[in-house]
Amino acid sequence: MFVDRVTITVKSGSGGNGAATFRREKYVPYGGPSGGDGGRGGDVYVVADPESHTLMAYRFRKCFAAGNGENGAYRNMHGHAGEDLVLKVAPGTVIIDVKTGRVLADLVNPGDKTLLFAGGRGGRGNARFATPVRQAPNFAEKGTLGIEREIRLELKVIADVGLVGFPNAGKSTLLAAVSAARPRVADYPFTTLEPHLGVVYLEGESFVMADIPGLIEGAHLGQGLGHAFLRHVERTRALIHVVDAAGTEGRDPLRDIDVINNELANYSSELAARPQLIALNKVDAIHDRQFVDQLVSKLAHAGYEAFPVSAVTGEGVSVLLRRVRDLVRTLPAPPVHVIESLPDNVDVVPLGVAQEGDTYVVSGTEVERLVSRVDLDNEDAVQRMQLTLKRLGVFALLRAKGVPEGAQVFIGNKQFSFYDEEQRGK
Ligand SMILES: Nc1nc2c(ncn2[C@@H]2O[C@H](COP(=O)(O)OP(=O)(O)OP(=O)(O)O)[C@@H](O)[C@H]2O)c(=O)[nH]1
Ligand SMILES: [Mg+2]
Description:
Number of helices: 10
Shape: elongated
Bound molecules: guanosine-5'-triphosphate, magnesium ion
CATH topology of the largest domain: Rossmann fold
Order of helices and strands: EEEEEEEEEHEEHEHHEHEHEEHHHEEH
C-alpha cells in the first residue's frame, strides 16, 4: 500500500526547571545559591531521507515527541537537554500545520533538514539570579513548555517531466526504457499503483521523470484510481502524454487525448496549462506507417506536438527525449513552497484581554510565556513577574478595560486576583 498523506501529532520537549538550592558545606553556615539550570527541551526536525519513497512509516504510529529537558539540581548541576526528534520523510514532502493550514516546510532535496518546532528553554537556576544586593535569591525559573501540534505530511514528488495517460498506454515501459527505474510493467490496466521516479541521462545532461498510475474518464469523480495521484505530477515542468497509438485503430486518438486533458483540467488549471508533448507509443505494433503519419499531422493540426515512439524497441525515443530536454531547459523549475517565516516556535499573539463571565483572560505570547515560567509559590519570583507584567502594559490594559479591583484574571493556565497598585496609590 502506498501512503502519501498522513496526519500526525508531534511535540517538542519542555525545558527543565531551574533549581533553587544553596550550598551546604561544613564550616560554611550560609552558602551561596547553587541551583543549576534546567536542560532545554528537544527540538522537532524533519529531514528528507533519500531512502524513503513513501510516508508508510507514519501509517500506524501517530504521535511523536522529543525529549524533555531535565531539571537543574543542587551544586550547579545543569539538567541534560532533551533528545531531538528527527522525522524522516520522502523527498518532496510538504509539512502543513493542520490548524492554520500554513506550510511549515517543503523538503525538496534528499538531505534537506528543517527545524519545525524548537524545544522549550530550560529555566535558570537561582545561582543565575545572585547579585551584590540579592545574594540569596530563593527562586528559580521554570522551563518553558514544548509545542504540540497536529501536522499533515503530504508527499508531492518533484520531477522535471511527468508521464500521464490511460492505463496500459506504456508509461512505465517508457520510464524503464530511458532510466534505471524499474516500475512494474504488465499487460493490464492499473499496473502502477504508486509514483516512480527515474533520472534520464542524455548527452551529458539529466532530468527527472515521474511515472504515475493511469487515468481514466471520470477520474475526478473517483473513477479508477482517481485523481489522488495527479498530486505527483503537479510539481513538474512539463508532461509527456502517452497514447497507445496501436490501440487507437478504429478509435479517435484525439478524443482519448481530450478525455485525459479534461481530467487534468478538472484537477487544476495549472496542470491543464502545463506544456505537453504527445508520445504516440507502440508504433512497433502498427504496420500501416501512413496511419502514424496521419495521426501526427492530425494532432499537429489540433496544436499538439506528437512523437511516434516504441518504448519496447526504442524507436523514436531519443528524438522525444531530446525535445523533452530542450523544453525542460526553457521552463521554470517545478513549484516548491518558499517558507518565509522562521520556525513556528510560538504563534505570536498580541497582548489582549477578553471577558468571560466575571473573569478576564489575558492573552499574548510574551505574557503567557513569562507567566508559564514563574513559580507562583515563590514570592520573590512573583514580585519580579509583576514588575515585568507592568512593563509589558498588562496592568494599564486591564485598567483601560475597566477590570474591577479583585477580579479574577487568567494568564495562560494560571489565575490571579487583580489588584491595581497605581489605583490604590491615588
Ligand atoms: N508492442 C508494444 N507494447 C508495449 C509498448 N510499450 C508498452 N507496451 C506494453 O503495454 C503493456 C502496458 O505497459 P505499461 O508500461 O505497464 O503501461 P502503463 O501505462 O504504465 O500502465 P498503468 O501502470 O496501468 O497505467 C505492457 O504489456 C507493455 O509490455 C510498446 O512500445 N510496444
Ligand atoms: Mg504503469
